[in-house]
From TrEMBL:
Gene3D superfamilies: Cobalamin biosynthesis CobH/CbiC, precorrin-8X methylmutase. PANTHER family: COBALT-PRECORRIN-8 METHYLMUTASE. The keyword Transmembrane helix does not apply. It comes from the Bacteria. The keyword Isomerase applies. Residues 20-217 form the Cobalamin biosynthesis precorrin-8X methylmutase CobH/CbiC domain. This is Precorrin-8X methylmutase. It comes from Ideonella dechloratans. Pfam families: CbiC. Pathway: Cofactor biosynthesis; adenosylcobalamin biosynthesis.
Length: 227
């Protein structure tokens, strides 16, 4: 589905800004040409390309069959937490867009108890931050965005498999050279929780933000659609 002009909350705030964004999307559509994505998936891939002008995400981005529907449903439900691996994702998300759906962000990477646990167990802060989110009950039904730390995604897969954690959607896009590609393959190999991943080494927090903003726009469009 394409995002209609009727969107207000998830659009740019000025007509000039809206025109630039819409023109950019039109250029991406034209240059990308035919693609394998379903109609509801393409707005997410397109916004990711828009975020960094890299057309390789047309192909590298992969979706669980239920990912988009699950993400839209979680957003429209209202109050769904967004759990991130790093503060950059929380800072990058539009506060007014989140507020429209009653959503709040959470990240624990720099918490003193997370650092202490990582040092004591010789693990990573990202692992301990996911465990803290689980202890606080924030992962169940959440949208989880991971753009920096492969170990966070690996730990989340473990929590799904071994402890029955069930986020509404996982946007798994950690970037890097050590375990990044492998962590996304692990996520995509499980079927219990819907996911969106970028295959290979590429990724990053900016792309998680782009994917979430696209989902927020799709949720607003669904909200405005005739019953």
């Amino acid at each position: 589905m394409s995002v209609p002009q009727a969107n207000r909350v998830t659009e740019q705030l000025t007509r000039a800004g809206q025109a630039i964004e819409h023109d950019s999307f039109a250029i991406i559509d034209a240059e990308a040409g035919p693609h394998r994505y379903r109609a509801e998936q393409w707005p997410i891939v397109r916004r990711m390309i828009h975020a960094n002008a890299d057309f390789e995400f047309n192909g590298l981005t992969d979706f669980h069959p239920d990912a988009v529907a699950a993400g839209i449903a979680a957003i429209r439900r209202g109050g769904t937490p967004v759990v991130a691996d790093v503060e950059m994702i929380c800072s990058g998300l539009s506060a007014p867009r989140l507020a429209h759906f009653g959503m709040a962000t959470h990240q624990f990477i720099s918490d003193a108890d997370v650092i202490a646990a990582a040092q004591a167990e010789d693990s990573t802060r990202a692992v301990q931050a996911m465990r803290k989110a689980h202890r606080l009950g924030l992962l169940q039904g959440a949208i989880v965005g991971i753009g920096n730390a492969p170990t966070a995604l690996i730990e989340l897969v473990r929590l799904i498999r071994e402890e029955g954690v069930r986020p509404a959607l996982v946007i798994g896009m950690p970037v890097g050279f050590v375990s990044a590609a492998e962590s996304k393959d692990l996520m995509a190999a499980q079927a219990e929780v819907p996911w969106i991943v970028i295959r290979g080494r590429k990724g990053g927090s900016t792309l998680v933000v782009a994917a979430l903003h696209a989902l927020l726009a799709l949720a607003e469009a669904a909200e405005r659609a005739p019953a």
